[in-house]
Amino acid sequence: MLIKVRGLEHSYMEGTPFENQVLYGVDLDIEEGEMVGLIGPTQSGKSTLIQYLNGLFIPKIGEVVVDGIDVREQRSRLRKLRQKVGLVFQYPEHQLFEETVGKDVAFGPKNLGLPEDEVRRRVDSALEAVGLDPEVFRDRYIFALSGGQKRRVAIAGVLALNPRVMIFDDPTAGLDPRGREEILATIKKLHSEQDLTVIFVSNSLEDIARLVDRLIVLAQGKVIMSGTPREVFSQVKKMREIGMGILQTVDVMSRLRDRGWDVATTALTVEEACDEILACFRKKASGEGRE
């Protein structure tokens, strides 16, 4: 087990009249190599939870163990933990502060005290991993980049630390369709080619349905569902009860089913939905032809 969370609770402004508890006894497990999605309605505790996974928060109640490091008991190893678990916040371009791409990506490796040749190797490797040619982008000014390119540079800066886990907190927020597709393709490539465990937090159900192997659903500070995207998104009534939307494809197919169409209601993508509708048309045409 790469990540284990047991009985985790968290409150903001603890001990004041404004105390607000956001996590209530969270339990979850993540295996090495998984691509896991984390979803939930607003204020469900998603962003709070992921900050425990690389030691930004230390548990007062509960247990968080990442790759054998107990976050509560082994505080002397938190620096090592933060190298193992890379966290890319929402709007990661706000994390960029150096003048050029190469300098920004090199910041983390330099702080590890690595020799210059190793820093250069890591910078070039990280840029290549996110689809940016080092020869083209290494000396390019940050302000000259597109929004999608800035986000990929921010991802490269985390990747240069050689993490085992990458956590992405709604990384496509605010991007145009092209930029969103670039980021999703980059994350998918990192998972498959870099041997990374990926935790993907998103408010876009369509994005997450296409990307992850398993979904964890938070609501009111608790894990209420876990399963494949198809298993989770088929729970339409439960998703609505907790204040989540449902996939547009699931909604459309459910409406067609209610009107007598013989289609599955678990289509996750537009392509799957189109295949189902075409198959239904063919069945009708075949039946009419026999009559």
Topology:
Blueprint: E1 3-12, E2 20-30, E3 35-39, H1 46-52, E4 61-66, E5 69-70, H2 78-84, E6 85-88, H3 101-111, H4 116-129, H5 134-137, H6 147-159, E7 165-169, H7 177-193, E8 197-201, H8 205-211, E9 214-219, E10 222-227, H9 229-233, H10 236-241, H11 248-258, H12 270-290
Parallel strand pairs: 3-8, 3-9, 6-7, 7-8
Antiparallel strand pairs: 1-2, 1-4, 4-5, 9-10
Helix pairs in contact: 3-4, 3-6, 4-6, 6-7
User: How would you sum up the global shape?
Assistant: globular
Order of helices and strands: EEEHEEHEHHHHEHEHEEHHHH
The largest β sheet comes out as: 6 strands, mixed
Helix content: 40-55%
Report the strand count: 10
Radius of gyration: 22 Å
Give the CA-CA distance, first to last residue. 58 Å
What is the helix tally? Answer: 12
Spatial strand arrangement across the major sheet:
6-7-8-3-9-10
Mean pLDDT value: 90
Structural class: alpha/beta
Query: Which parts are unreliable, with pLDDT below 50 for 5 consecutive residues or more?
Result: none
Q: How much β-strand is present in the residues?
A: 15-25%
Provide an overview of this structure.
The model has no long low-confidence stretch (mean pLDDT 90). Helices cover 42% and strands 21% of the residues. The protein is an alpha/beta fold and 291 residues long. It has a 6-stranded mixed beta sheet with strand order 6-7-8-3-9-10, sandwiched between helices. A 4-stranded antiparallel beta sheet has the order 2-1-4-5, covered by helices on one side. Helix 3 (101-111) packs parallel to helix 6 and helix 6 (147-159) packs parallel to helix 7. The chain has a domain at 247-291.
